[in-house]
Write a structure and sequence with these properties.
Chains A, B, C, D, E, F: It is an enzyme of class 5 (isomerase). Chains A, B, C, D, E, F: It comes from Hungatella hathewayi DSM 13479. Chains A, B, C, D, E, F: Its EC number is 5.3.2.-. Six copies of one chain form a homohexamer. With 67 residues, chain A is an alpha+beta fold. The first copy, chain A, has a single domain, classed as 2-Layer Sandwich (Macrophage Migration Inhibitory Factor). Chain A contains one helix and four strands. In chain A, the strands form two sheets. A two-stranded parallel ribbon of chain A has the order 1-2. A two-stranded antiparallel sheet of chain A has the order 3-4. The longest helix of chain A has 19 residues. The first copy, chain A, is elongated and about 45 Å long. Chain A starts with a strand and ends in a 10-residue tail after the last strand. Chains A and F meet through β1 and α1 of A and β1 and α1 of F.
């Protein structure tokens, strides 16, 4: 513990995932005063047709801000 | 918020996913009295060998009701 | 299956939860063409200090739209 | 109910998944005194670049104990 | 890893939770051929008005099989 | 999106939660190159008898490193 889970859109590079894991783990370790070794993190990546905001599938949106 | 997550068997068409996102978001918006724009929804799709009922993998079942 | 999970702010009435369960289950059943009896739904309710948007705890926000 | 979810590294054989579903469901049924038919179980499998311990992606580790 | 999550109705005794954690961890360890020390398990307990089957809140059911 | 979920032991102060939300959101925003306003984060807090490592409930452990 703690167990972190990040749901995000598919398509990130390995380098982005590397920085995401490192940065989020460091931040959690600092805030909670625990060793980074205690923290596990999983990324659940979804396709644009598996995600909806306001009832609209992301793949159907005309304007797609970076998320 | 709210954040909705639907775990379901893989294999739905884009049109089914479209109706699922729209219908579920509308229902949540109405029941809770909040704007649809506030609601995010994710579909986690699993294969038949990643799902079990009563200890039996779905892929090993002889009779498979629609789920 | 499907298994639905709704994460939302604590404080809803029993009647709102009743309508939420009924409406969301009906919508999922219609969209996916499966029996309602196949669908399970869980509500995970969180406090205002367990939720953050844009890095700010909900309890620290001055303006709180209904979510 | 209960709804069990197991997040694990991708790469297990169908036979391992079969034993996992059977064994975990039996154990839960015995401990809680409920019928196995009541229990659903889902496996969420992740790649080595979607998992991190101590802030390091699993794919970047030199030593990888079996997990 | 693996990370196990069990969503279940509130009300279990400490002894039941003890047996649940032990039995499920053993079964996962055996099936996947990994050390029990690698496995973390969390129980998310819900109230009867936070759970629905077939669109009906569990608290509203007349007949309630053990779950 | 992204949707972040942190499962952790109950008992943190409001200030720790404030720093956790802020730090983790900043780190995710930087790593993925997206606006912090896009990121939602939920903390699921569990009791010591709802968590197990290696099959042993945390409340039953004699030695309890900070987690």
């Amino acid at each position: 513990m703690p167990r972190i889970q990040i749901q995000m859109l598919k398509g990130r590079t390995a380098e982005q995932k590397r920085r995401l894991a490192k940065g989020v783990t460091e931040a959690a370790s600092e805030a909670l005063g625990i060793s980074q070794e205690r923290i596990s993190l999983i990324m659940l990546e979804v396709e644009e047709d598996q995600l909806a905001h306001g009832g609209l599938l992301w793949c159907d949106r005309e304007v797609k801000p970076p998320i």
